[in-house]
Design goal:
Elements: E1 12-17, E2 20-22, E3 26-31, E4 34-43, E5 48-58, E6 61-65, H1 71-81, E7 88-95, E8 101-117, E9 120-121, E10 130-135, E11 138-142, E12 164-168, E13 179-180, E14 183-192, E15 201-208, E16 212-217, H2 222-233, E17 243-250, E18 256-272, E19 284-290, E20 293-297
Antiparallel strand pairs: 1-2, 1-7, 3-6, 4-5, 6-10, 7-8, 8-10, 8-11, 8-14, 9-13, 12-17, 13-16, 14-15, 16-19, 17-18, 18-19, 18-20
Length: about 300
């Protein structure tokens, strides 16, 4: 008898949040299935172990996405950072290269747990993607069939890893930064098992904002040197010693696609970046910043 079932190659993904389709390009998706923990219990006098299931949980769902058409996701991230903690329900459709849907993952009452920005480098030449992780309270997977909507495939040429501008108010020269290391905003979630419910309820408890690490040519470092002298060497601690910073994501025509604002920014460390004699390297400064809070600026089209 001939084989009738064949493997398929992952082709495309499409996401919907609370009935609103996200039209951005989804590069990678994983997670979102149930699992359970096991307990071992000894009995008898011959070292036998009884293994039985205990607590059930749901794996986080992780996905990477491009900026074009990503307004629903960006609004969700903004709400999370603003401590609105909006929950979302929706689905992710997995399709083959012929856009036939082969698997649909539905999820409910999800909370974002992590948002990761890629390393931004002025010499890079590849598209940039944000990675988001979220934890749902309920999931269901099925092989529903059908086809993806053609609008799922949008032009993904809006954000390159080299197209950015980082600046710090009252610290001139930082806008010439050539590199910002990858950073993540994390949301801690508490799991509460209730009654006979198979899976726990989720509650947001704390936001963790990252340190920002970047480099800039030493020739543009006068502002950083002044800040270092005032904030670290002299120990100035009044509000003026803390700054506001901005990361602007740029389109190929250098217009601003969207912006991240950083508040109460402090200088943790300033150092001369590693370099080698007679190598033709540009002398650079490396700075490490502390951040108390962040926001996504909705003035650039993703917030209605």
């Amino acid at each position: 008898m001939g084989q009738t079932t064949r493997s398929y190659i992952a082709g495309f993904f499409q996401m919907a949040l609370d009935g609103e389709r996200n039209l951005s390009y989804l590069k990678r998706v994983n997670g979102g299935l149930e699992h359970q923990e096991f307990a071992q219990e000894g009995f008898g006098d011959d070292n036998k172990r009884l293994i039985h299931g205990t607590v059930a949980n749901i794996d986080e769902i992780s996905f990477e996405f491009g900026m074009a058409g990503a307004a629903p996701i960006l609004k969700w991230i903004k709400e999370s950072w603003d401590k609105d903690f909006g929950r979302r329900s929706g689905q992710i459709d997995h399709a083959d290269f012929n856009t036939n849907i082969v698997l649909t993952q539905e999820f409910s009452n999800a909370l974002i747990t992590e948002t990761t920005f890629p390393t931004l480098d002025g010499s890079a030449n590849e598209n940039a993607y944000l990675r988001v992780k979220f934890m749902p309270e309920g999931v269901d997977s099925n092989r529903a069939g059908g086809k993806l909507d053609g609008d799922a495939f949008v032009d993904e040429k809006q954000w390159n890893c080299s197209l950015f501008r980082f600046s710090i108010d009252d610290v001139p020269g930082v806008e010439y930064s050539n590199r910002i290391e990858s950073f993540s905003v994390k949301q801690k979630v508490m799991k509460l098992a209730t009654g006979e419910a198979r899976f726990p309820e989720l509650f947001p408890v704390a936001l963790e904002f990252p340190q920002i690490v970047g480099t800039v040519a030493e020739a543009y470092g006068a502002g950083l040197w002044d800040w270092h002298d005032e904030y670290i060497r002299k120990g100035r601690r009044d509000p003026k010693a803390l700054k506001t910073a901005h990361l602007e994501i740029l389109a190929p025509d250098m217009s601003v696609l969207w912006r991240v604002n950083f508040f109460h920014v402090g200088l943790k460390k300033l150092e001369v970046a590693d370099s080698t004699a007679n190598s033709g390297q540009i002398k650079r400064l490396k700075y490490t910043l502390t951040v108390e809070s962040m926001e996504l600026d909705g003035r650039y089209g993703f917030e209605t």
